[in-house]
Amino acid sequence: DGCSDLSAYERKRLKNITENAKFFAALKLHESAARLKQLTTKRQSHATKRAKPKKVEEDEPARRRSMRLLRVEPLEVPLLETPAPLAAEPYPQVPVGPLPMVPEDQENSKWVEALLSTWMRISEVKAESADRGTPDIKRYQESLSSMVLSEENIRKVVKGRVCSMAIHPSESTILVAAGDKRGHVGLWNVSCGTEEGAHTFIPHSFQVNCMHFSPCNPAHLLSLSNDTLRCGDVTRAVFDEICRSENNFSCFDFLEENACSAIVSQWDGAVAVVDRRTPGASPQLSADIGFSRTRTVHVHPVDKQYFLAAGSVDVCVFDVRYLKAKGNKPLSSLPGHTRSVASAYFSPVTGSRVVTVCADDRLSWIHEEGRSSPPCRHNNNTGRWLTRFRAIWDPKQEHCFLVGSMAQPRQIQVFQDTGTLLHSFQNTDCLASVCSINVVHPSQNILVGSNSSGRLHVF
Q1: What is the dihedral of CA 90, 93, 99, 103, to 10 degrees?
Q2: Are 152 and 189 in contact (CB under 8 A)?
Q3: CA of residue 30 relative to chain centroid, distance
Q4: N or C end of the chain: smaller count of CB under 10 Å?
Q5: Residues annotated as region Disordered (predicted)?
Q6: Of all helices (H) and strands (E), which one includes residue 379?
Q7: Residues 6+ away with beta carbon under 8 Å from 211
């Protein structure tokens, strides 16, 4: 039929197309679709006629929705005030460079001056080192049982969720610093006993991930945010800028007793070496250690050249002397983790033990030479609205560590490195929230726990 010049394959293909077209024409799909569309339109028309229009009142209040479902940070709004919109504006950006140590509440200047004067005075007295040998467990438990929480030792110090804390080593005055998600740093003189003992400063634009008083000069408070490492110097009433970077910082620790240099971890997995004695605000070295994410770093208490890095599923020991830009290999890797690791810290005296917190709901501790103890079951499912748990060693004891708890009643737990639960700090009348971040005084029986609303509890 005029297709004699086509090949056998092409003639067969045209024949199949023709037969398929005849088959679909016999089904009359187009006519059926048209009838179905007419029927659907007619039903919708009848339903519209039967439906009564809803009466809308001008003063009808807007429907409230859960802030948790909207994934919006909870805002504390005083009574009798207009609530802030759910889409909160970004926090104001802090200027680059040194900042004056001026509190957010500048009205009570005399009380702020008293707080800073107290900090300066207690920093001049050298704290005595505590006995941190092998503990008498029974005696240690008795000392833990003697620590209590009272209403006057509870205070809201910062506005947002607490992400880090530090405690001054003074033996005469309890001075606590807390950093929150908004970049605020709160100072609380617990020994003051009045409402004027706590004040808030704003040295950062982003959440404060880590804080330490300088081990050689506690008049210096170093705080690390996502983009900056600052030093609050109370003698000059200024927050100096030590380091600034676009590679989001997550944690830091001092490489020397004089606190002149530090190892800083980054959320992208790398680590950086910062030296305060060099000019400029850039790290001296940025090293790729092969992690996809690095959450905490911790320097060995005896051999300062070694540091511990904890990442997504990695816990490794590195030698800072051999760090280079790329191709770094760990000295040792601590096994046993298959999910995200929140923290890892050396024991305070010998550094022969490491305690870790993992998202697999386990606490693990590794002894020297890589020997691991059986992990301890522990609910670490804090969710997105609570700061993740970090198990910290009691600086006065080589074999005991503390960690927050999701258990009811709310409590802070103390474990021995054998996995034995030694004590639970709790008070059903005063403690009704989860204390994710905790800090222990280096020489006194003092524990401070913080929650996600900026409130501190001192046992």
Answers
A1: -20
A2: no
A3: 61
A4: N
A5: 38-63
A6: none
A7: 164, 165, 166, 177, 178, 179, 185, 221, 222, 223, 224
pLDDT in tens, 77-135: 433 333 333 344 456 688 888 999 988 876 667 788 888 899 999 998 766 666 665 56
HEC string of 307-365 equals EEEEECCCEEEEEHHHCCCCCCCCCEECCCCCCCEEEEEECCCCCCCEEEEECCCEEEE
The SS3 assignment for 416 reads strand
Report the alpha-carbon distance of residue 447 to residue 425 in Å, rounded.
Answer: 9
**Residue % of the chain over a pLDDT of 90:** 60
Task: Count the alpha carbons within 13 Å of 142 in the hemisphere toward its beta carbon.
Answer: 5
pTM of the model: 0.78
Q: State the Cα angle at 453 between 220 and 243, rounded to 5°.
A: 30
Q: Is 46 in a helix, a strand, or coil?
A: helix
Residue 330 — left, alpha, or beta (φ > 0 → left; ψ -120 to 50 → alpha)? beta
65: Cα within 13 Å, side-chain hemisphere: 9
CA–CA dist 442, 41 (Å, integer): 78
